[in-house]
Amino acid sequence: MQKIYDVAIIGAGAVGTAIARELSRYKLKIALVEAKSDVGMGTTKANTAIWHTGFDAKPGTLEAQLLRRSYALMESYAPEAGIPTERLGGLLVAWTEDQFQNLSNLLQRAHQNGVTDVRIISAEEVYRLEPGLNEGAWGGLFVPGESLICPFTLPIAFATQALLNGADLKLNFPVQGIQQEDGVSHVFGPGEQRVSARYLINAAGLYSDVIDHMLGHYDFTVTPRRGELIVYDKFARSLINHIILPVPTAITKGVLISPTVYGNILLGPTAEDLEDKTNTATSEAGLAMLLEKGRAILPQLMDEEVTATYAGLRAATEHKDYQIRLHGEQRYVCVGGIRSTGVSGAMGIAEYVADLLAEAGLSLAPKPEFKTIRMPNIGEATPRPYQRPDLIAQNPDYGRMVCHCEKVTMGEILDAIHSPLPARTLDGLRRRTRAMQGRCQGFNCQAHVVDILARETGQDPKFLLALDGREVQR
Ligand SMILES: Cc1cc2nc3c(=O)[nH]c(=O)nc-3n(C[C@H](O)[C@H](O)[C@H](O)COP(=O)(O)OP(=O)(O)OC[C@H]3O[C@@H](n4cnc5c(N)ncnc54)[C@H](O)[C@@H]3O)c2cc1C
Fold it and tell me: Cβ neighbours of residue 220 under 8 Å, at least 6 residues apart?
């Protein structure tokens, strides 16, 4: 007989996995359904990786409210689960008189949003904080809480914790149809794939409108808004101390220059509306625009080596807020239009969705124990395994370097392959360990990594390599 779950969640990005984790603290049977072969492979893996305070969100919106709540939740969750973060602070630089005048509006907006530690600073202070900036800054707004986060570890942590607390993960399950009958949603994939649940959540990111249509709703249309980025080599890291933000516009937060938790520098993103929800290619025009902006903000950056370029697609809609709606009579919650802040907002969204489900009649009885997790550290702010003699003494594999650019050891690769949510592809290993993400982009270590993955999982090395070309977004 077909198992009937209490809740099925479609989409295992930051948002879907956060919801699965949040619900797994209750006595519920949960299924997390994902089209791809791993969690976190949609927009969640291709963004700017800033943990936003929400200081510049439109006051009174659901986005502003949930970003604020999420920030507090993440402040305790990230250290508990070992998610790499760095609280560097954001420095929003005004390059024109108009932008400088606008800073007081942004300050006021930040206060309205409950972000009260923000302050306007003089041009002198801007250059004291960031001596490498180009000439011409009028002043700035300093936002101490803006932080870096690892967008790779985040969904893996959420999903791992959900699994540990009893949720089921159905990968390679692209939802193609939904039927609702007698209070149960039947979710169908290709062939025999089927999941049935009493409550349904749509967290399908770029495809959240398509899933919404399957349930008879046409409240919004997702337009993929492409953002291209350039990743600079680690030698560039010392050029800046903070996240350098532009004054945002109505369309985009604009082009920023930011460190990453891995020790690189990012320049981007662009903002361009497309039709194709799969077009994550970079473009000559987009990269040229970024170089021009980068040169104007931080001229020395142009002397640094580029490690990689990539593009991600924001799930933009015709509305200016998250599209989160409860359809109580259908026991269905749509969590769409999570545009450019979903990594930061995921935990707040998850808590809000749990409240909506309770409103719709789902009983949320806590389990006697909500198991916690601790993720392997892939950030630079705390010691990595190769820097820890204690770990190497326990297991010499943590001293055997496989990826020399990113300093990834055999021990970490084996851990990722044998973890509760195991890496089964090269892309999965990249996001769990950083192997092949460095300046040589796998030129030196890929063959070795393929050998290890093939040996440990029994997969054909040729298959792993062929699949990689299709699954990697860059
Ligand atoms: C350039 C750029 C920069 C950004 N910068 C930031 C930032 O600095 N900070 C921040 O907080 N946010 C940022 N964002 C936004 C953030 O990345 C997104 O809001 C967030 O990743 C959305 O997560 P999600 O889970 O909703 O979507 P996704 O990560 O796209 O997950 C949706 C999942 O649903 C699955 N799915 C889709 N259709 C189906 C189906 N039919 N069946 C089964 N599964 C399906 C997909 O495969 C995917 O895994 C940025 C985005 C971009 C593009």
Answer: 209, 212, 317, 318, 319, 323, 336, 337
**What local confidence, expressed as pLDDT, does residue 467 receive?**
86
Confidence of residue 474 (pLDDT cuts 50, 70, 90): very low
Quick check: 365 pLDDT over 60? yes
Architecture of domain 84-149+223-316: 2-Layer Sandwich (3.30)
Dist. CA 10 → ligand 1 center (Å): 12
What are the residue ranges spanned by the domains of the chain?
Answer: 4-46+152-221+319-359, 84-149+223-316, 385-471
Pocket around ligand 1 at a 6 A CB cut-off: 10-16, 33-36, 41-44, 47-50, 52, 174-175, 203-207, 227, 269, 312-314, 338, 340-344
Please provide residue 418's backbone torsions phi and psi, each rounded to the nearest 5 degrees. -110, 20
Residue 47: φ, ψ to 5°: -145, -165
Residue range 4-46+152-221+319-359 forms a domain whose CATH class is alpha beta
CA nearest to 40, candidates 159, 146, 141, 206: 159
**Is a pLDDT exceeding 50 seen at residue 125?**
yes
List the residue whose alpha carbon is closest to atom 4 of ligand 1: 47
Instruction: Please name the residue whose Cα sits nearest to atom 26 of ligand 1.
Output: 205
User: Cis peptide before 269, with omega less than 30 degrees from 0?
Assistant: yes
pTM of the complete model: 0.97
Position 468 confidence tier, pLDDT thresholds 50, 70, 90: confident
Look over the chain and give the mean of its residue pLDDT values, rounded to a whole number.
96
Sheet containing 50-51, strands listed edge to edge, beginning at the edge strand earlier in sequence = 50-51, 147-149, 85-86
